[in-house]
Design brief:
disordered C terminus, eight-stranded mixed sheet, single chain, Glycerol-3-phosphate (1)-acyltransferase, alpha/beta, flat, 3 domains
């Protein structure tokens, strides 16, 4: 059942997000018990992502309030999800029972003693804040209990950061970053600190290294927009088979911006003025490109006619071969996807609601549509034909999404080519300005490192 549901979750995630990129999977030691500590920005989607990208079976913990609904509770227990009772979930005015999670801790311990993998969200809640929430000590206590019991050898605590381009928007991008694990056999708390608090602080430090942490949503928006511009500035013109950049490229630049921003207040006034000027120049060239319907990443395309002919032939051939299948995939899935989206967008309380509701509702509607169509095909032809038809349905959906994204990218490239062919002067001006910006950004990056008068405390 886990294997089946993991496969269904993978299909649903690929349909909702156009790119899910994983970094650092090799950091997880094979055949060792692992406690995965993950930030929690997107409700149920976070657990689905980790379960899908992680190669081993994952035992999931979840807040006990999810089990209040009898149907949901029965399904979660059937899937092996373990409830965690938080202190704030207890009856108001009553002192929280310190043994309330004893059975869950024991189940986690048993799984780890069998070299299993357990997922926990140490923030204790899902949220829309642009930074980690304060971590609870539950994950640290689980890890210490397992280590000190003496029957869990080689336990590692693995921080995993989930970064969503826009978690509530279909066909956006996701980055899953796996940080440096904590080897519990060799970890020791600093002198004078309590082990659970010390380990929680260590987990937070490593989790912050693979997540974004801003003081406000506006700061996060500005940094991400600037990183996207700089990534477009330095990334080579993508080949057409690559629909767009990996989110990881922009994430690395965003972290460098964070580092430089922390140093900038300690630089001299002239350097700070240069930073402001660079940002204004980047935004100005972006406005010029947008005014003419051109993406920054397409400014560097070549304008030779024979390249355009090859482009049209290649994309036309691909569309002719895959287009009918993609069209069938779109027609077949439009109703269940549209119905799921309508349901998902009702009474939204959090930015995590649309993705979670869309994935759950779309999975249910698509499965019902598949079963109904398969039954009809079986009745008209044969069970073997019906099975082949059933297998073709998700394949057609995948082809539809891939070709739709590729067609969107091809049309954007074609518009840029025609615009630059009509106005070579615009192409030259943008090329020159981008070349100057690249040189100036690199020079600024080096100079800030050299001229900062002191580091922040």
């Amino acid at each position: 059942m886990y294997v089946l549901l993991r496969a269904i979750a993978g299909i649903a995630l690929r349909w909702y997000y156009r790119d899910i990129h994983v970094e650092g999977l090799d950091r997880i030691p094979p055949r060792r018990p692992a406690l995965l500590v993950v930030n929690h920005p997107n409700a149920l989607v976070d657990a689905l992502l980790v379960g899908w990208v992680f190669p081993r079976r994952v035992l999931i913990t979840a807040k006990s309030t999810l089990f209040a609904n009898p149907i949901a509770g029965a399904l979660l227990r059937f899937l092996g999800v373990l409830p965690l009772r938080r202190a704030k979930d207890e009856t108001p005015g009553e002192r929280a029972d310190p043994t309330r999670n004893r059975s869950t801790f024991e189940s986690v311990h048993q799984a780890l003693s069998r070299r299993g993998t357990v997922l926990i969200f140490p923030e204790g809640k899902t949220h829309d804040e642009p930074s980690l929430a304060p971590l609870k000590t539950g994950a640290a206590r689980m890890a210490l209990h397992a280590r000190d019991a003496g029957d869990v050898e080689g336990l590692v605590v693995v921080p995993i950061g989930l970064t969503f381009e826009r978690k509530d928007v279909p066909r956006s991008r996701v980055l899953v970053q796996i940080g440096e694990p904590i080897a519990m056999d060799s970890w020791r708390e600093p002198v004078g600190t309590k082990p659970p608090e010390a380990l929680t602080m260590e987990i937070e430090t490593r989790l912050r290294a693979v997540t974004f942490n801003y003081s406000s949503a506006d700061d996060a928006t500005r940094a991400v927009r600037l990183a996207s511009l700089i990534a477009a500035l330095f990334e080579p013109v993508p080949t057409l088979g690559v629909v767009d950049r990996r989110l990881g490229a922009e994430t690395a630049i965003t972290r460098r911006i964070e580092e430089l921003s922390a140093r900038l207040p300690f630089a001299d006034a002239a350097l700070r003025a240069r930073a402001d000027q660079l940002v204004r120049r980047l935004e100005a060239v972006q406005r010029v490109a947008s005014k003419h319907g051109v993406l920054i990443e397409d400014v560097g395309i070549t304008l030779e006619p024979h390249r355009a002919v090859r482009f049209v032939v290649r994309e036309g051939w691909l569309l002719a071969i895959g287009g009918p299948v993609a069209l069938w995939g779109r027609v077949n899935h439009w109703v269940p996807f549209r119905a799921a989206r309508v349901i998902a967008m009702r009474s939204i309380d959090s930015a995590a609601d649309p993705a979670m509701r869309t994935l759950v509702a779309a999975t249910a509607f698509v499965l019902l549509a598949y079963l109904a169509q398969t039954a009809v095909v079986a009745a008209i032809w044969s069970p073997l034909v019906a099975l082949a038809y059933l297998v073709s349905l998700p394949i057609a959906a995948d082809i539809n999404f891939y070709l739709s994204d590729r067609l969107r990218r091809a049309l954007s490239r074609a518009r840029a080519w025609m615009r630059f062919r009509r106005d070579p002067e615009l192409h030259r001006r943008l090329m020159d300005e981008l070349a100057l910006l690249r040189a100036d950004v690199l020079a600024f990056d080096r100079e800030l490192d050299d001229r900062v008068v002191s580091e922040p405390a």
